[in-house]
Amino acid sequence: xxxxxxxQALAELQAGNRRFVAGVPRHPNQDAGHRAAVADGQHPFAVxxxxxDSRLAxxxxxxxxxxxxxxxxxxxxxxxxxxxxxxxxxxxxxxxxLVVVLGHDSCGAVQAARDTARxxxxxxxxxxxxxxxxxxxxxxxxxxxxHDIDGIVDIHIAQTVEVLLGxxxxxxxxxxxxxxxxxxxSYRLAAGEVRQVAPAxxxxxxxxxxxxxxxxxxxGVDPAPAAVPG
Length: 230
Ligand SMILES: [Zn+2]
Prior knowledge:
Blueprint: H1 6-22, H2 32-37, E1 46-51, H3 58-61, E2 69-74, H4 81-93, E3 98-104, H5 108-119, H6 127-143, H7 149-167, H8 169-176, E4 181-187, E5 194-198
Parallel strand pairs: 1-2, 1-3, 3-4
Antiparallel strand pairs: 4-5
The structure holds zinc ion.
């Protein structure tokens, strides 16, 4: 039976990750019969807003199959307008009860942003947009005295959760109504494990504790990431 609450959806993802870590994946919903069964419609139980890193394939690390996960990936899991719109589609039209922001250790996008801040050398082309979108997380990390890359990654994951809630009234309303929760998780490349980093507490059935909509969060419009200290 498909998970229908945020808590059930999160438990399903965590169970799949445990199978993946242990090396005993079931590869559910990947057979021809299921492929045909879901051809007429999709009801994914989780949205994954993940980094594009090639080692972070959502269906593999959560041991899921076709129709299970609605996946949106960008380098550094930045959440600009098209990402917000994609998530809004999943939670409103498809009724998906859980949104997971998925980052990982040694994230190249976060490292690139930190390098830009340190050297003042602006990356070429549209890569600048990625680096700029990580800028607010770098500043928050500096304010908290966090300078190691994985510590910054955790802060950036939490920041992305805030971006989803703060910049999308649609997502915030779904969360406030208890139909959806937004959590941040970090993946360890070598171990294959995910751990929840935002919020610290597991979502409740009502999800009210995990999703207090706040003011708009700056993202993707930072004109000067090179000014970030640290
Ligand atoms: Zn990454």
